[in-house]
Structure formats: structure tokens, C-alpha cells
Amino acid sequence: MTPATIKAADAAQFLSLLPHLLGYVPTRSLVLVPFHGSRSLGAMRFDLPDASEAGAHDRFAATAIGMACRVEETDAVAMVAYTDQRFDSQQRMPHGVLLDALRSRADACGLRVTDALCVAADGWGSRLDPACPSVGRPLQEVELEVPASTAAPTGDQLSGAELIPADADEQRRVAQASAALEEAIRILCGDEDGATVAGEDEETFPAADGDRGIALGAVPAPIDGGSVPSGPREDCGRARVDPRALTTACRLDDLPDLFEGALTWPLDRLEPFDVAALAWCLSRPSLRDVALVQWSGDLAQGDEALDAQLRWEAGEEYPTDLAMRMWGEGDRPDVDRLEAALALVRRVAAAAPRRLRAGPLAMCAWLAWALGRSTHADAHALQACEIEPEHGLAEIVRSFVAAGHLPDWAFRAGR
């Protein structure tokens, strides 16, 4: 859902303004705009269904209209099919059957249909307009309006899902910082293998009695599970460790403080050890889950999540109100906070070594999903799985997208 509103005098102006509501120009998509009276409540985008399957239109219509019905106060809906098909190929409106199925489902659900439109490669038209030419109306009538105070949207629904590559020098410095940080953690934890990157289903980060930060790596995540080797080890003859790495490792003793401060870091000049610390944390499910709760909540909830992880390790139940956040239930997160976290983690994913990139990418996927950007979420999750097949969080997000599952808060009023 895109939480914004638009005002249009007619169908042509509505179509010219709709990309401003979405923030991009959709392609091969169905867009639904729920209304309460004459006020738009946002917009939903779906990939156009595969019409070759029997009953595909009806199933799609049931899902799409069902999601529109979940938006608070919705009593009407507008629908727009964006396609690269043409009016002139068959002398009729492309995807007319789909629009009819959507109209029928909306009527059955008690929703008024304000319009059913198609923007094709060679024209546009309304399914509700009996005078619409069989070859459509000129596309010039729906050219994107650009108000003086607003920049024109560019790109389509996939735009912005790609990472902006970090330059080679930044990647080199972050890789060096990551290696130094892992060595510092080995020394502090007294375990040769404790700081190596764990797979999504295992945690090889050793416990340290009484610590709240570094010890948390030993806490199996409530969703992903884990196994924990532990125990100190005598170690002599090491090379000198970068003092900045030791300082960074000590900052892990207060994870909520680290995660909160990270939201204010200047993205155009991130410190290599800051990037290394976040990439390292986000590569471990139990630490990542604390960040997920905190960035979608607040510092106090980060503290609560950290304590809950430690209690869970001791055999207590993990609090339901924290676990449900992963599934998109609970209080509506602050959009600006989610946006800041997503921008940060995208930078971390771009600059981190490939071996540490899957965790940040999976977090990018969840944050994008939490913001209602399922297309971006799926793209980031797929990137994570290409690096680490069967990555737990990435696969969860992909299953959400495949099932058309959005966060519950996406359907509630408010920003």
C-alpha cells in the first residue's frame, strides 16, 4: 500500500496522476486504488495474472479485491491494468476479461467500482465507458502530469530494488575491517571459530557469561533455531589486532545502542568498521532479530527483544508480541524509521564482502516488505538466496510475497 491521496477531475487526469501516488510508472501490472467516498486511501500493485490457466482471472480477482476490502474504511475501488498489449491487435480493450472479473468480485463484496481502466501500448480506455473506441483513446490524454512542486516519477515497480554499488576502495576497506573485527571477537571470546560467518540455521558465535551483547550471538533465534559451541581456549602468538577492531567489538556489548545510533549514521560517509559491525550482526539470526524488532519499533523494544532472546535461551517462552512483528502484526511501525533503516542496510549490503551480504540483503527484503513494497522485497530476498541458498529470513519474505501476504498494518489508516 502507498499511503497518499490524489484528486482528479476525470479518468484521464486520474491516470496522469496515479504514478505520483505510486512513486513510479507501473508496467505489466494491475493497480487497485481503494476509496472512502471520494477520498483515495492509497494504492496496491499486482503483477498481471497468467491468463492461460483456467480460472486464473477469478482467483486473481478474489485475492486482489479481498486485499482491497482489508483497507480500513474502503467502500469503493478503482482498477487500472497497465499492459504492453495493444488495442489495435484485436480491436478491443486488452485485459477486459480481467477487469470484468474484478468488477464482479467487487460488486459481490459490496464495493462500488469508480472506474475500470486499461493503459495499453497504443491507447487507453475505460471498461465503464460505452463510447470508448475499439482502438482506445490517445495516450497523449493521460501523459504524466508534473505539478510545479513535484518531480516526475521515473522507472517502474522494479526501480530502486538494485543496490547502488560501493566503490572498490570502500569495499576493500570494509573487507579489511570485517576481517579485523572477526579476529578481535575471536580474541575476546576465546574461540578460534566463534567469529566465522554462520549459516542461517546455525550460530557458531560463542557465549560469554553475563554479557548482553557479544553473548547474544549464542542465543538461537526463535524462528531459525541454532546450535552453540562454547568454551574458552588458550591462544598465543597472534599478530597485532587493529585497535579499532577491538573498540568495535566492545560496542557489540550494547546492541540496542549500536542499532539505534546506526539510524543516524551519514550514509555518504559510513565508517568501514561501522559497516563491518552491522554486516556481522545482520548475518546472525538472533542479533538480526533484535535489529528487526527495534527498527520497526523503538529503542525500548530493542532492549526488550535482547532480553527476550536471553530468556529464551534459558528456556522461557519468547514473547508473542515480539515474535508477531516478523509476520507483520502488531502496532504500525513509524514509516520514517523503516525508511531510514532500509536506506542504511542497503548501503551496508552494497559495501559488505559477499560472504557477509546475505544477512543485510534479507533484512532489506523484510524492511521493504514492511513498507508494503513486495516487489522490492522479493528482489532483495532473491539476491540473498543467490548468495546463501535456503536463507531463513529471505525464504520467509519470499513466501510472504508469493502468497500475497502483506503486513497487517498496511491495511490500517495512518502513515
Would you mind describing this structure in some detail?
Helix content is 43%, strand content 8%. The chain is α+β, with helices and mostly antiparallel strands and 415 residues long. The chain has 2 domains: 11-142, Cytidine Deaminase, domain 2 (3-Layer(aba) Sandwich); 168-411, no CATH class. α12 (358-370) runs antiparallel to α13 (374-387) and α13 (374-387) runs antiparallel to α14. The chain is elongated, with a radius of gyration of 25 Å.
Q: Overall pLDDT, averaged?
A: 84
Number of domains: 2
| Major sheet summary line | 6 strands, mixed
Structural class: alpha+beta
Number of helices, where a helix is a run of at least 4 consecutive DSSP H or I residues = 14
Categorize the overall geometry: elongated
Radius of gyration: 25 Å
Q: Into which percentage range does the β-strand content fall?
A: 5-15%
Distance between the termini: 11 Å
**Low-pLDDT runs:** 192-236
- Reading the helices and strands in chain order gives HEEEHEHEEHHHHHHHHHHH
Overall number of strands: 6
Q: Percent of residues in helical segments? A: 40-55%
Give a brief rundown of this model:
The chain has 415 residues and is an alpha+beta fold.
Task: Provide the descriptors you would attach to this structure in a database record.
alpha+beta; Cytidine Deaminase, domain 2; 2 domains; 415 residues; 14 helices; elongated
Architecture blueprint of SSEs:
Blueprint: H1 11-22, E1 29-36, E2 39-40, E3 44-47, H2 56-70, E4 76-82, H3 96-108, E5 112-119, E6 124-126, H4 168-189, H5 243-251, H6 255-262, H7 272-282, H8 285-295, H9 299-313, H10 320-326, H11 335-351, H12 358-370, H13 374-387, H14 392-402
Helix pairs in contact: 2-3, 4-5, 4-7, 6-8, 6-9, 7-11, 8-9, 11-12, 12-13, 12-14, 13-14
